[in-house]
Design a protein that fits this description.
209 residues, alpha+beta, Immunoglobulin-like, globular, disordered C terminus, binds 2-acetamido-2-deoxy-beta-D-glucopyranose, signal, lipoprotein, cell membrane
């Protein structure tokens, strides 16, 4: 009873405390933000906000990793970027944010070049999808996806095209902590783990349960 009450309270505060986000580049699967979004979509829904993987909006994206621009609407949030390979991805099992990021500020966050894992089995023309997850303080997570075609002959966005809004920053969470002592690192990890919850972590890391 008490637990159920606490969960409902957590869910309610989570809704209030979280702002939705958009993907500006590469083109997202579909708009899931605001009143013009299809009413069947919900960013709370894993893995891609309820947007089917068959809409066909694909962006050519560099084989070596391309740009990513997010439209953020919060004081701060954790960001996870996962990649799945194939045409209609069910398994976003490559993490592109290891460690994950902590981002601060409202507006556009543009990463010129997202780093891909070594030895990804991709070549010119390979299909894939990016899954972006933002995660709030209480473990509430929001999802959006963008579908891409890996291309040998396309570039990441130029400096002119890839502009981060004033006041918007990001930093890898664990890397920042490792500049402190080993004890501090362990403290941050434990704090993040307990705040986020194990189940949510399973989802954000794209593991199948
Ligand atoms: C996706 O493609 C469809 C069909 O071309 C188009 O109507 C829709 O606006 C596109 N969605 C986005 C988010 O660009
Ligand atoms: C939402 O999904 C239902 C059931 O598939 C469908 O009938 C309805 O047209 C959809 N609504 C919109 C706005 O696309
Ligand atoms: C972000 O925007 C929201 C809503 O407009 C506002 O409440 C919040 O204070 C803003 N946060 C920052 C860091 O500007
Ligand atoms: C990721 O998932 C795909 C499809 O399920 C599978 O073929 C591939 O081996 C997986 N890769 C890793 C690194 O888990
Ligand atoms: C992430 O950033 C926010 C705002 O600066 C901060 O309150 C929070 O503690 C940070 N989280 C971690 C794990 O560093
Ligand atoms: C791609 O991103 C890298 C890393 O930020 C940058 O050095 C390079 O100039 C970018 N390439 C293009 C064509 O913008």
């Amino acid at each position: 009873m008490a637990l159920a009450g606490a969960l409902v309270l957590l869910a309610t505060t989570a809704q209030l405390a979280t702002a939705h986000f958009g993907i500006e580049y590469p083109t997202w699967r579909d708009n899931t933000l605001g009143s013009t979004a299809n009413s069947n979509y919900s960013q709370w829904e894993y893995p891609c906000a309820g947007v089917p993987g068959t809409l066909g909006n694909r962006t050519d994206w560099p084989l070596t990793g391309g740009s990513l621009a997010l439209d953020l609407h919060h004081d701060w949030t954790y960001i996870f970027i996962n990649l799945g390979l194939g045409e209609n991805v069910a398994n976003f099992n490559y993490s592109l944010t290891d460690p994950f990021w902590n981002s601060t500020g409202n507006g556009t966050l543009c990463i010129p070049k997202v780093t891909l894992p070594a030895n990804l089995p991709i070549s010119d023309g390979s299909l894939g999808s990016l899954q972006i997850i933002t995660l709030g303080e209480k473990g509430q997570s929001l999802y959006n996806c963008a579908d891409i075609t890996f291309r040998a002959n396309v570039a990441n966005l130029t400096e002119e095209e890839c502009k981060t809004s004033p006041g918007v920053t990001y930093a890898p969470v664990v890397a920042a902590a490792t500049t402190k002592s080993a004890g501090a690192t362990a403290g941050v990890n434990t704090g993040v783990l307990s705040a986020v919850g194990l189940l949510t972590l399973l989802f954000v890391f794209g593991m199948s349960v």
